[in-house]
Amino acid sequence: MLTYDQWEKAEKPSFPSDNETKGALDVLAWAYREYGDEIVYACSFGIEGIVLIDLISQIKPDAEIVFLDTGLHFPETYDTIAKVKEKYPSLRIVMKQPRLTLEEQKAQFGDELWKRDPNKCCELRKVIPLREVLTGVTAWISGLRREQSPTRRHVEYINKDDKFRSIKVCPLIHWTWKDVWNYVYKRHLPYNVLHDRGYPSIGCAPCTAPATDPNDLRSGRWAGQGKTECGLHLA
Fold first, then answer.
1. Distance, CA of 158 to CA of 70 (rounded, Å)
2. What's the predicted TM-score (pTM) here?
3. CA separation (Å) from 41 to 10, 19, 67, 105, 120?
4. Sequence-distant (≥ 6) Cβ neighbours of residue 99 within 8 angstroms
5. Which helix (H) or strand (E) holds 203?
6. Residues 135-167: tens digit of each pLDDT
7. Helices 177-187 and 47-59, axial angle in degrees (round to 10)
8. Which residues are annotated as a binding site?
9. Are 145 and 48 within 8 A, CB to CB?
10. Binding site per annotation, positions for [4Fe-4S] cluster
11. Calpha distance 59→64 (Å, rounded)
12. Can you quote the record's cofactor note (predicted)?
């Protein structure tokens, strides 16, 4: 088994990128053979997440899907999760919440921490909860695509994740925005209606706005704060 501790010595798998799913199904099939129940998918239920859930369901219908429920998501995001649960009843969708409620966070760090210190808010409500999820887990799946942003252009199918001391599996690295939507329309998949309202990337409501740059799908995230990532995908 390819693990974080054995990364340097282990032989890395290779996958075709020129087939119908640009390697995604091959990567997922390998990942679930390799790790079984020792791999989880941390899903934001954005459009890439919908694609991955559908692909995963074809390989492991009872896979564990973890949603980092910060308590600050759009109502439309929770509506999307409900639709996914209905379409894929065998999936084990876990709503992982932070240790601190929003009221407890307010009492300890002040009101609207996301405005004053968004990195701290992300740490409390996303990074720490994911670290708890990944404790004792060998690998996790992410919907990162190289096209999404400059910080993601060098992501590989299989990655050594130093932040969480895990293996991070990214099946969609070669998918374009057009590929994602073509798949969703072809398969008639449910998705977050905010995508139709100018939100290509959807996170917590206070820190997400419609995209301001058509060439940067994440330009609506933490707009004006000099922040581009929540911290889950940074070493």
1. 27
2. 0.89
3. 23, 23, 9, 27, 24
4. 128, 129
5. none
6. 888 999 999 999 877 778 899 999 999 988 999
7. 60
8. 121-122, 204, 207
9. yes
10. 121-122, 204, 207
11. 12
12. Binds 1 [4Fe-4S] cluster per subunit.
